[in-house]
Every structure is written in C-alpha cells, then in structure tokens.
Model the fold of this input.
Amino acid sequence: MLKIGNIELKLPLVLAPMAGISDMPYRLINRSFGCELAFTEMISANALAYSNPNTPKKLISNSQDSPLGLQLLGGDPELLIKALDIASGHAFDIIDFNSACPVKKVASRGKGAGLLKDPLKFEKLLKVIITHTDLPVTVKIRSGWDDTSVNAVEMAQRAQDTGVSAVFIHGRTRAQRYSGNVDYNIIRKVKESLDIPLIASGDAFSPVLIKRMFDETGCDGVAVARGGLGNPWIFRETAGLLKNGEVPPGPDVHELVRVMKEHFLSNIAFSGGRIGIINFRKFFAWYTRGLPVRNLKVKAFLATTEEEMLNLIDELVTQQKNRSAEKHNISNAEHDISIGSI
Ligand SMILES: Cc1cc2nc3c(=O)[nH]c(=O)nc-3n(C[C@H](O)[C@H](O)[C@H](O)COP(=O)(O)O)c2cc1C
Done:
C-alpha cells in the first residue's frame, strides 16, 4: 500500500504528469485499468494567475477522475499563491510542485529543474505552497542538474524538512532530459535518506521494469509515464505481476479496439471534433505499436473526421482476421505438402 497524506492506494502506481498528454480522457482510460492516483500535466502558476485562456481546461476533472493531483510549475511566490487560490475552487486532492522540468525556457528562469541549482529558493517556494493549501503537498525532483551536481538526496531532505507528504524523483539529471538509462542507485540513496514515501520515475516501460524499480531502489511507488502511452493495460499487468508473480495476458484486438474507441470519443467530447481528432492521431500510433499496420497509422495521421478515425480503428479487427486467415492457409498448405510427401 502507498499512502500520500490521507490518500491510500492499494496499487503503488501513479499516473505521472505529462505535458500535452495527461488530460481527463487520458487519466480516465488509465484509471479504468487500475490506476488510482493521477496528476494533471504541469500547469504554469503564471498562466493560471494571468488567466491564460488555454489553462483552465487543464483544471477540468469529474467525480470519477479522483483522487487527482495538480502539478504546479512556478518560481514566484506571489504567483504560486494566486494559482493556489484559483485551484482551491477545483476538486484536487494533492498539490505537486514541479522541480524537474528540463525545458530551457523554464529551467533557465529558475523554475522546474532550474530549482535544483537553488536549494534555498526551492525550500522557500515549498514553504509558501505548504502554508497556502490544506492539501497534502508533494514535490517532483530529478537526480540533479548534471552528472557533476547530483544533489537529489540533499533536495529530498530539504523537501521533507519543509513538510511535504511525499517526494517524486525522476532518476535522470536535467542534462539527460529523457535519454539514457534511469539511475537506480541515486533513487535508492534518496529512499534510504527519507522517512516519507518516495515515488520513483524513469524507464517504467513494462511490468518487469516497474518491478525492477521496486526491487533495486526500495521505492514506495512508481510513476508511469511513457510506458502508459497507448498502453493503459500496464496498470492491470503490473498489478498481476506484483500480486501473483505473473504478467496476465495483454488485450486482444477486440479489447484494443473498444478502448481506442472509448478514448477517441472521450477526446472528441472533451476537446471538440477538430482538436480531438488531431490529439488522437498520436495515440493511434501508440496503441498500435508493434502491430504490422503501418498503412493504418499513415491514414490515421491524415484522418480529419470522426467517422474516418472510427473506421480505421475498426480496420484493426479486419486486418487481424486477414492475418489469422493467412496464417491458417499457410499452415494448411504446409500440412498438405507434408501429407503429399508421405
Ligand atoms: C511528453 C512528456 C511530457 C512530460 N511532462 C511532464 C510534466 O508536465 N510534469 C512532470 O513532472 N514530468 C513530465 N514528464 C516527465 C515524466 O513524468 C517522467 O518523469 C519521465 O518521462 C520519466 O519516466 P519514463 O522514463 O518512465 O517515461 C514528461 C515526459 C514526457 C515524455
């Protein structure tokens, strides 16, 4: 069990925040396969405070989309307070402070991973957030700025001392962005130095890799990020591996099609036809990763209507049937040849 503040999770997995991805439809699809706690994508305190028209949509959730954490990005105490005031009108259960975003225009302005270079400012901002919300506060850090300044143990301890309820760590430096392998060693060292829960992030691409993260680091929870793209089954499959020692079978083509349609239609309902279709194009490619359906992926990237996309999703069943029939014909032909040779 993983406990963050007053939130108790039976399965110690969390849906990680991902900019441009973690909207309500995405979160709900993952929840339907066992994800209990999800986060919004990072939301800029500046954008919230200055009422950027695109930002409020990122705050939308419903009663099934719970418990839900709001991830805030910011470097200015006044703007963070304003953002918290606005967020208090929405149903969030956790406030997570982003000290991990590697993007240059963020980090170079003393926000996101930029805070790893300024531990005092990091601590001050966390104190401001904790003082201005009644919700449990968590923080997301990276292992350090670069490999000459790996300071996650110090940063995590500072965060614990300010009173956060849990620490999230992406086990890569800011210099690595998203490349290279996750550093299990630094995550283990952070875990050993903390009394509060540590949720680890990095290379959580499969149930086996998620179990490896638990085994190698002793972390209390794992955050699923790129491993969940087009693969909400990762929650069900990891639950199976952690509980029974075996990964249950993945989805068959009918379940794949059902989930793709549900995700697509909720995208349309949430974002409207045009944006919903554009948004789903990349999901089509992720859902069909590893399947020999390049022709459909290309068509999905050009699809402009709801009907077109739904037809392409249905085509997955037809193509699967054709492949099975082909296999059947080949094995019959092989059988005939071997009979003929008797
Ligand atoms: C497209 C994309 C967007 C991301 N956006 C965020 C974000 O908004 N907030 C955040 O804390 N991390 C963000 N991340 C980082 C992930 O949450 C996660 O820590 C990282 O991808 C490492 O995990 P993985 O190797 O299992 O993907 C993002 C990652 C990707 C690939």
About this structure: The two ends are 62 Å apart (CA to CA). DSSP finds 13 helices and ten strands in the chain. Residues 16-21, 41-42, 71, 98, 100, 140, 170, 178, 201-204, 225-227 surround flavin mononucleotide (CB under 6 Å). The beta strands are 2-4, 7-9, 13-15, 37-44, 68-73, 94-99, 137-144, 166-173, 198-201, 221-224.
